[in-house]
Amino acid sequence: MTSAPYVATLKDSTAVFKEDIFKGKILFCTGGGSGICKGMTEAMMRHGADAVIVGRKLDRLTQTANELSATTGRICIAAQADVRQPRMLKEAVEKTIAQFGKIDFVICGAAGNFLAPISGLSENAFKTVMEIDTLGTYNTIKATIAHVRRSKGSYIHVSATLHYKATPYQAHVSSAKAAVDALSAVLAVEEGPHGVRSNVIAPGPIGSTEGMQRLSSIAEGGVSRLPLGRVGDIQDVANATVFLFSEAASYITGQTVVVDGAMEHMRDFQ
Ligand code: HXC
C-alpha cells in the first residue's frame, strides 16, 4: 500500500506567535495595495501593528486599507506615491508621521514585471523595472531611514529567486532584484550600529498572485512533484515577515530568507 503524498500544512502566524507582539508599532509598506505585500501587511496588523500602504493607484489602495482595517481591527491608511518619485515618497512619509508619529518597520515591496527576452526589451522597458524595483527601494530607504533609526526598527525587502540562476525573459527583474539584495546587505552593515536591521524575503512562485499568473509555468499536476506538495501561499511569506520583524529575529540581519519550499534547488530537475 502506498501512502498519500505529503502536502505541507498552511498555518496562520497567529497560530504560532502572540497576537499583540507588534502592538504600538507602525508599518510603512510600498506595494501594499495588493498581492504579497497586502498579505504581509495584514499579518503584521493581525499582530497589533497599524500600517500605511503605499502605491500608485489610490482607489485600489483605499479599498485595501479599508478592508485591512475592517478585518484586523487596526488602522490602515493609504498614501499614494510612485516609488520612482522621491518627492511623492517624502509626502507619504510625512503623512505617516502626521498620523502615527513614527515608523518602526518598512517593507520595500513595490515591483514591476513582465516576460520579455533581452532582444525584445527596449531600453525604456529595462529602465522602467530597474527604476521601480531598485531605485524605488533606494528611494524608500532614503525617505524612511531617519525615522527607522529613531525607532531602532527594521526593513524587509521583497526580492525573488530568479537571479540565483539564469531565468530566461527575466533579465530586467533579475538585474533589479540582485541589486535589491545588495542594497539590503549594505544597509544591514551600515545601519546595524544604529540598531536597524535589514533582511530580504525571496518568495518563489506564490499561488494567486499577479506575478504567478503572469510568469509561472508550473503545470497542473506538476505540483505533486514539489518537495512540500504544494506551491507557496501569500500566508507563507506573511509568516516569514512576522518572524523577521519580531524580536525573535533580533540577531538576524543582512540575510535572505527564501520562501519557496526548496523549489529553487529543484530547478535543474524540472
Ligand atoms: C516588453 C514591455 C512589456 C512587455 C511593458 N513594456 N510591458 N516590453 N514586453 N510585456 C515596456 C513598454 O513598452 C515601455 O517601453 C516600458 O516597458 C514601460 O512601460 P509602461 O507601461 O510605460 O510603464 P509603467 O506604466 O510604469 O508600467 C510598469 C510595468 C507594469 C512594469 C511595465 O507592468 C507594471 O507596473 N506592473 C506592476 C504590477 C506587476 O507587474 N506586478 C507583478 C510583480 S511580480 P517603451 O520602449 O515602449 O517605451 C514580481 C516578482 C516576480 O516582481 C517573481 C515571480 C516568480
Automatic annotation (TrEMBL):
Keywords noted in UniProt: NADP, Oxidoreductase
Organism: Lentinula aciculospora
E.C. no: 1.3.1.124
Listed GO CC annotations: peroxisome
Pfam families per record: adh_short_C2
Protein name: 2,4-dienoyl-CoA reductase [(3E)-enoyl-CoA-producing]
Coiled coil: none
Enzyme class: oxidoreductase
CDD domains: TER_DECR_SDR_a (cd05369)
GO molecular function terms noted in the UniProt entry: 2,4-dienoyl-CoA reductase (NADPH) activity
GO BP of this protein: fatty acid catabolic process
UniProt xrefs under InterPro entries: DECR2-like, NAD(P)-bd_dom_sf, SDR_fam
Catalysis performed (reactions): a (2E,4E)-dienoyl-CoA + NADPH + H(+) = a 4,5-saturated-(3E)-enoyl-CoA + NADP(+); a (2E,4Z)-dienoyl-CoA + NADPH + H(+) = a 4,5-saturated-(3E)-enoyl-CoA + NADP(+)
